[in-house]
Each structure stands twice: as structure tokens, then as C-alpha cells.
Design a protein that fits this description.
The complex is a heterodimer of chains A (687) and B (166). Chain A has 687 residues and is α+β, with helices and mostly antiparallel strands. Among the domains of chain A are: 370 residues, no CATH class; 106 residues. Chain A is built from 20 helices and twelve strands. In chain A, a hairpin with a 3-residue loop joins strand 5 and strand 6. In chain A, helix 1 runs antiparallel to helix 6 and helix 5 crosses helix 7. With 166 residues, chain B is an all-alpha fold. Chain B contains six helices and no strands. The C terminus of chain B is likely disordered. The chains are: A alpha+beta (687), B mainly alpha (166). At the A-B interface, helix 13, helix 14, helix 15, strand 1 and strand 11 of A face helix 1 and helix 5 of B.
Chain lengths: 687, 166
């Protein structure tokens, strides 16, 4: 299988090289009109077919590696290091992306799969797709070169083959780890497609804005995958790492967050280009930056440049990535300089208080957040270079900037959709902002009365202050969104005679992009409320003997006993705890500690019981070697379930936004015949 | 005009009320446990786990216990937060601090984001202001007779005369 996989990768490399060369020559011939012995259109089509064949070849290589994992072929070094005989079937599949070489092959396969879809749908715009396909072939060529020459997944073991492998990292033996990395990679790799379209459109001086519509769709898909990947990672960290949190500003987490921020900025500013012909250069650079940040993130985590809980070991592929990054940057700058006159804005922002300027500020804040994270992630390297000593840039640093920036973004989320395009009047500001303002101040007062106070024990508590601001702003933003939604639904109800609920549905269907976007905003607001809850986290640690009890918040945890279990893969220690509230037994919790046979590494399985208000989160930290009693750490983490609920809304909202809207004329056909036509003007579309 | 001043009065009254409520509810005194919790989240565990000292959850971690004990002793001896952080960084090196110190070259880590934020915000506001002024100037330019004649020709040729259509 190793030979088959290696051969498939070599074939894929040759095909990708042909795709790039033939595609570039064909596009050059078409652009210059020079006579050629072969028709450039036919040459471009052979390049496209080669791109399709790359997918087949890389699929064969990926299949070979998975097959080797399933058949315990430990003669392949990668399989020896990332699998073992007792590894459960889903994790054998996950072995494909659990190590450096495999994950790069997986990356190459996803890129080939995206390219396959793109090349199959080329009829939408043959020339633009030819440019995008050729650029994509260039990216594909790089990844295939890496897996063929620098990080080969099929390298064979020298000497005797061991009877069993080293096994998968225990931290990765968790169900979410079968979904989280593919989602994250789908997001990372997915940003190659908008990049290819943007660069292609710029190279060919694409007339009009159609390319930006195509790019927006692909960006939304990649953004959705990246969002899911990030939040699945957060949930994994919460459920497995056992420190009670979900985001630690680790360089690997930062690496996934950076392209997410620029991608989010693009999804907002793209509306300015579509509606107003503005921010063309800005949008092109946002897409370029998003792709470059995906590569930078990969470089940071895979080359071992930064210390991280889940980065790969130091490896020579860093030089490959630096070279690729510089080449891509040079191509972007060169193309931009050559074609920048094609990107002149048709209009300009007319007022500081307008929808346009709110988009501008939204982009500015997102980019500043991204710059801050890049700066914080790279600062230890810079500090070591300048001073000779490394410093840690951890959560206290990021929190001090990221929280105020996040709150400002939350504020803009509420304000932006309430501002009209071009400019606004005091009257319209007052009309649109009165309800959100009441919600803001009302929530602040209610929170203060309920105990959400920014002072604790006589000292100003910045965390609780931020939480208070977050809750108040969240109430204002939700009021703004719902009032806007209900206002629109009322107009539809008056126009069509439908009831308000049916009008709400029709409103969303008429402008899926706008109201899908509102759903996403609601989801983000709910996520921020959940994140703000962390200001009120509590924890208790205790050594529990059988029959003893300890309290956290309103709960009493009573130790019933502790037990052990074993299977082929690991040994487990469980603590059995009965949870009481006001003297009544509510449920049982069984936090677990595993020790894996092959690696000898321990792993925590946290017991979590979620309520709408908080999570009871119990960790079996281990056993005191002297007394033999289990050490239990319990956390009461408020509003964590709101984060996961918010993400669900973000996903639903993105799906809605991806669906095509029904036109008002189609909707009008569905007006019940007996209803008289309304004199009200039709609801204006737009974003 | 009267309604604007009423609105301003309403907003100011609401703000004053909130401030009064906030002050009313803010009472109490600080304690050692809170200081310990706060400081343990500003220090890193030195076992190589890349976790904050207050969040390191490894049973049998060789660094967590001694660091925690040292922190408790420092608080009990009456050292200030600044002195405790300085003593830790002297003993374990700068990597023990969860955030870069605010002096020397490391101050750059703190100043750069603020400077970038301020510059970007100011730059954007000035740009938008300049654009809006440019727009006003453009609108007040005298009519060009050549352009008027061209528009008239277009209207004649396209039949969009005085029907008010756009």
C-alpha cells in the first residue's frame, strides 16, 4: 500500500504541474491572441481535466493511508506512530489527520476535492473558472510537493516491524476529534477558492461584479466550516482538557481565529462592493489576507515556531511554507500593482453616521483584532530575536485588548443594521435607537440589582464590568434586530394579509441573505453572552473519601465510591458522585481518568451536566498516592450552554443566507386571491 | 427642538440613575483568596503544559504545588502584587509571567496594539470626513454647458424627456 500511495502522490504532482503549466500557457495565449499550434481553449480544457484527475490521484493516496491504518500496516512509519491495533475504528480513520504528514495529505485531498467541484461547475463562467482553476493548481502543486518530498506519509520503517503501533495521542481519542479537524481544514482550505477567484478576476480584469458574488458564496461555505471547526475545538478543549475553560489563546487556536476574522470582515465589506461599487481594493486584499493567514497559521503551528499545547513538533517544512508564503505575497502585490486601476471605487462614503461607515468601522475593528492576535502570537519570537529571552503572551494579554474590541464589535452589530445607506438624520436615529437604548439601560439596571456588579469586595472587577456591558449591549442588539424584523414582517402582513408569523417566514424567504445575516448576528450575540458568563466562574477542589461531601454553589457532591474499568485500549478510574440540591438527589456524575496502554499517557474525561443557567463541570484529577482518595475539582461555569446554542443559530443563519431568495413577484403570486392588493410600497430589499 | 432637549434630559437622567445604582451596590473589602486567584491567573505553570498556574490540572505536576505554595507564602508575607510577580520572574525567568512585562522592549507588546487602534480609527474618521467634504464640493461645482448639452442629447435620443422618469 505504501508503494501505491507514493505512486499516486507522484502522479498527482505531475498532473498538478501539467494543470498549472498548460492552464497558464492557455490563458496567456487567449489573453495575447498569439497564434498557437493547439487551440488555447482545448489546451485550457486539458488543464481542467488534469485538475479533475488530481482529485482521483490524491483520493487514491489518502485511501492508501487509511487502508494502511485499518490493516495495521506498521511498516509505514506514520501508521506506526499514530495508530495501534486496539484503536477503535473511527479513530483509525482520524489517524489520517492526527500527524504532520497525514494532515498535509488530508489538506492536499481537501484542496483537490474543492478543485474538483470548481472544475465541474466551470460552465458558470468558463474563463474566470479557468483562471481560478490554474491558480488553484499552483497551490495544489505546493502541497503535493511538500507531501512528496518534505513530509512523506508513506515513508517506510527501517529494520524490524514492531507488533503494535504507538497509538493515537489520547487527547485526540474523543468523538469530536473525528469531526473537528476536518471542519477546520475545510475552512482553511476553503479560503483557497475565494483567493483563486479574486486573484484570477484581478489578473483577467474581470468586468462587473459577478466574480464577487461567486467568491462570496465560496467564502461563506469556507467561513461556515471554519466557524464549526473553531467551536468544535472549543467544545473539545472544554470537555477533554479539564481546566474548566474553552479558549486559552493558544497559538493553534489563534491560527484558526485569524483567517476567521478577515473572512468575517470580507463577508461584510463585500456588500459595499455589490451595492455601491466601493471598497474593491479593500475586498481583494481581505481575501488575499485571509488566504495568507491560513498559510501563516499552518506555518506557525507546523514548523514548531511557537509553543502550543497542540502544535506539531519542530520540522523542516517551515522553510517550504515561508517560501510559499513569500511567493504568494509577491504574486498578490505584483498583480495588484499591475491591475489596481481596475479596482477604483465608484462611490465614496458620504457620512460618518451611515451604513457604509458602520461597515468600514466593523472591518477596521475586525482587522485590528486580527492584527493584535498576529502580533501577540509572533511577539515571543520577536522578543527572543531582539532580547535573547522568550516571553509568554497568554490570556491576560489577549483579554485586555480582545474583550473591549469584542464589545465594540457587539455595539456595531446593533448599530450597523439600524443606519440607512448614504447618510442619516437625527430623527431617524431617534426613531431607530430609542427601543435599543431602553433595553440597554433597563438590562444594566436589572443586572446590577440581580448581582452582576462591577465591584467585588470593594475593588473594581474589570471582568464583571465587561460582563455587565456585554449583557446590556446584547439586550440592545437583540432588541434592535427583533424590532427591525418585526417592522419588516408588519409591512408584509399589511401588504399580503397574512398573519405575523407567516409574514416573518415570507420576509426571510424574500431576502435570505439579509435575514440569514440577522440570524447569524443573533447567534453571535448569544455566544458573547455565554462568553461573558465566564466572569462568574467558580471552582472548588477537594480530596473526597467515600461518603464525604463537598459543596459548590447550590449543589452538594456526595462521593458514593470510585471504581475501575479496563479494555484493550485503556484503563479507567471513575469517581461516582451523587449530586444533591436542597437535600434532593438530582443525578449522578462519573468523572473519569484514563491511562492508555500503549502510550502510558493519562486523559481526562470531564463529567458535565448542563443547565440553561450554568454547567456543573466535574473533573477527576486523579488519586492521592498517600491516602488513595480521589481528587475532585468541580466548576460552576455560568451560561456555557449559551455558547453552543449561539453557534447553532450561526450555522442555521449561514444556511439561510446561502439559500436563494424568492423574488417579490414570486411571493406576490402566493398572495391569497381574496386579499386586496395593498397600497403600501413594496419592502425594500438590500442588506 | 423641545423634543430634542427632552430626549437628552431623559438619557442623562437614565445614566445618572444607573451610576447611582452601581455605586449603591458596590461595597466590601478585598481578601487574600481573591488575590491568590488573581495572581495564579497571571502566572504560568512551569511544567511545560503551557497552562496558567491557576488552571494547571495535572495530578502530580512537579511545578504546580511548589509555585502555589510560594505564591501563598508571598501573599502571607505582605508583598504587593508587583513584588510577587517580580520575585517569580527573577526565580523562573520572564516566561513565568502570563503576559509580557510593561517595561523595556516588552512594553512594545502593549503599546503597539493601542497605537495601531488609535491610528487606524483616526485615519478612517479623517478619510470618511475628507470623502464627505469632497462630495459636498463636487455637488456645488457650477454646471458644465457641454455636459448639459450631452444630457439633453441623451434624453432626446432615448425619449426620456419630461415624463419625470429616471
Amino acid at each position: 500500500m505504501a508503494s501505491f500511495g507514493s505512486f499516486a502522490l507522484l502522479i498527482a504532482l505531475a498532473l498538478a504541474a501539467y494543470n498549472l503549466l498548460a492552464g497558464a500557457v492557455a490563458l496567456r495565449l487567449i489573453a495575447t491572441g498569439h497564434p498557437a499550434p493547439i487551440s488555447p481553449e482545448r489546451l485550457a480544457d486539458t488543464a481542467r481535466r488534469a485538475g479533475i484527475a488530481v482529485f482521483v490521484a490524491v483520493t487514491a493516496a489518502a485511501f492508501a493511508l487509511v487502508y494502511a491504518a485499518f490493516t495495521n500496516d506498521f511498516s509505514i512509519t506514520y501508521i506506526l506512530e499514530h495508530s495501534n491495533r486496539a484503536l477503535p475504528t473511527p479513530y483509525k480513520f482520524a489517524a489520517l489527520w492526527s500527524g504532520q504528514e497525514g494532515s498535509l495529505l488530508f489538506w492536499a485531498w481537501l484542496l483537490a476535492a474543492y478543485g474538483f467541484v470548481l472544475r465541474l461547475t466551470h460552465q458558470k463562467d468558463v474563463k474566470l473558472y479557468a483562471y481560478a482553476g490554474t491558480i488553484l493548481a499552483g497551490i495544489q502543486l505546493f502541497f503535493l510537493a511538500v507531501v512528496n518530498f518534505a513530509a512523506t506519509p508513506f515513508s517506510l520503517l527501517r529494520g524490524a516491524v514492531p507488533a503494535d503501533g504507538n497509538g493515537l495521542n489520547p487527547l485526540l481519542q474523543y468523538p469530536e476529534m473525528v469531526i473537528h479537524p476536518p471542519m477546520l481544514y475545510l475552512g482553511y482550505v476553503g479560503f483557497s477558492i475565494p483567493f483563486a477567484f479574486a486573484l484570477g478576476a484581478l489578473m483577467m480584469r474581470y468586468p462587473g461584479e459577478k466574480w464577487i458574488k461567486i467568491t462570496r458564496g465560496w467564502t461563506m461555505v469556507a467561513w461556515l466550516f471554519l466557524t464549526c471547526g473553531i467551536f468544535l475545538g472549543m467544545h473539545w478543549a472544554y470537555a477533554v482538557l479539564g481546566w474548566g475553560g474553552y479558549w486559552g489563546w493558544d497559538p493553534v487556536e489563534n491560527a484558526s481565529f485569524m483567517p476567521w476574522l478577515t473572512g468575517t470582515a470580507f463577508l461584510h465589506s463585500v456588500m459595499m462592493q455589490e451595492r455601491k461599487g466601493m471598497m474593491k481594493s479593500w475586498n481583494v486584499w481581505l481575501i488575499f489576507s485571509t488566504f495568507l493567514l491560513s498559510i501563516l497559521g499552518t506555518l506557525l503551528t507546523r514548523a514548531g515556531l511557537v509553543s502550543s499545547v497542540h502544535a506539531f513538533a519542530k520540522s523542516p517544512i517551515g522553510d517550504w511554507f515561508v517560501t510559499f508564503l513569500l511567493i504568494v505575497l509577491a504574486v498578490c502585490i505584483f498583480t495588484y500593482i499591475l491591475q489596481r486601476d481596475h479596482l477604483k471605487s465608484e462611490q465614496r462614503v458620504e457620512s460618518l453616521v451611515s451604513r457604509e461607515s458602520s461597515f468600514l468601522f466593523n472591518n477596521l475593528v475586525l482587522l485590528i483584532a486580527c492584527a493584535l492576535i498576529v502580533w501577540g502570537t509572533l511577539f515571543p519570537i520577536l522578543s527572543e530575536y531582539v532580547q535573547g529571552t522568550k516571553v509568554t503572551v497568554g490570556p491576560p494579554y489577549y483579554d485586555s485588548f480582545a474583550i473591549p474590541i469584542g464589545l465594540f464589535l457587539l455595539f456595531l452589530t446593533g448599530v450597523g443594521p439600524l443606519l440607512p445607506w448614504r447618510s442619516t438624520s437625527m430623527r431617524s436615529i431617534r426613531r431607530n435607537f430609542i427601543l435599543p437604548s431602553i433595553a440597554l439601560w433597563g438590562t444594566a439596571i436589572v443586572c446590577l440589582i440581580a448581582g452582576v456588579r462591577p465591584w467585588h469586595d470593594g475593588k473594581f472587577d474589570i471582568g464583571k464590568f465587561y460582563a455587565l456591558v456585554a449583557f446590556s449591549l446584547a439586550a440592545a442588539v437583540l432588541t434592535a434586530i427583533f424590532s427591525e424584523y418585526i417592522r419588516g414582517a408588519n409591512v408584509i402582513a399589511r401588504q399580503t394579509g397574512r398573519n405575523i408569523f407567516s409574514s416573518m417566514v415570507l420576509l426571510v424567504r424574500r431576502n435570505t441573505r439579509r435575514y440569514g445575516g440577522y440570524f447569524v448576528h443573533i447567534g453571535i450575540v448569544i455566544v458573547i453572552v455565554g462568553l461573558a458568563g465566564s466572569a462568574f466562574n467558580r471552582n472548588q477542589e477537594a480530596e473526597l473519601s467515600v461518603g464525604s461531601t463537598f459543596a459548590i454553589g447550590p449543589y452538594n457532591l456526595h462521593c458514593v465510591g470510585f471504581t475501575q474499568d479496563s479494555n484493550d485500549n485503556y484503563d479507567s478510574n471513575y469517581a461516582v458522585l451523587d449530586v444533591y440540591r436542597a437535600g434532593h438527589k438530582l443525578f449522578e456524575m462519573t468523572p473519569e481518568k484514563r491511562v492508555y496502554h500503549v502510550s502510558g499517557q493519562p486523559e481526562t474525561r470531564v463529567a458535565i451536566h448542563s443547565f440553561p443557567g450554568w454547567d456543573l463541570y466535574v473533573v477527576f484529577e486523579g488519586t492521592n498516592p498517600t491516602t488513595g482518595n480521589p481528587i475532585i475539582k468541580a466548576f460552576l461555569n455560568p451560561l456555557v450552554s449559551w455558547i453552543w446554542a449561539g453557534v447553532l443559530l450561526v450555522v442555521i443563519g449561514t444556511f439561510i443566507a446561502l439559500m436563494p431568495s424568492i423574488s417579490p413577484s414570486t411571493a406576490a403570486l402566493r398572495i391569497p386571491a381574496q386579499q386586496p392588493a395593498s397600497d403600501e410600497p413594496a419592502l425594500k430589499g438590500g442588506d | 427642538m423641545a423634543s430634542t432637549s427632552r430626549f437628552t434630559f431623559f438619557v442623562k437622567a437614565a445614566q445618572a440613575l444607573c451610576l447611582a445604582v452601581a455605586v449603591y451596590f458596590s461595597l466590601g473589602a478585598s481578601n487574600a483568596t481573591q488575590r491568590f486567584n488573581n495572581l495564579s491567573h497571571r502566572l504560568m505553570c512551569q511544567c511545560g503544559c503551557n497552562q496558567l498556574l491557576g488552571e494547571c490540572d495535572h495530578v502530580g505536576c512537579p511545578s504546580r504545588g511548589p509555585e502555589m505554595a510560594e505564591l501563598r507564602a508571598d501573599i502571607a508575607s505582605g508583598l504587593s502584587d508587583k513584588e510577587i510577580l517580580a520575585s517569580f520572574s527573577q526565580k523562573y525567568g520572564l516566561t513565568v509571567l502570563a503576559a509580557p512585562p510593561t517595561h523595556g522592549f516588552n512594553l512594545v507588546a502593549w503599546v503597539a496594539p493601542i497605537a495601531v487602534f488609535a491610528a487606524a480609527l483616526l485615519g478612517t474618521m479623517l478619510l470618511v470626513r475628507q470623502w464627505s467634504v469632497g462630495k459636498t464640493q463636487l455637488a456645488t461645482q457650477p454646471p458644465d454647458p457641454h455636459m448639459d448639452a450631452l444630457r439633453e442629447k441623451i434624453r432626446r435620443e432615448t425619449g426620456s424627456g419630461d415624463d419625470g422618469g429616471s
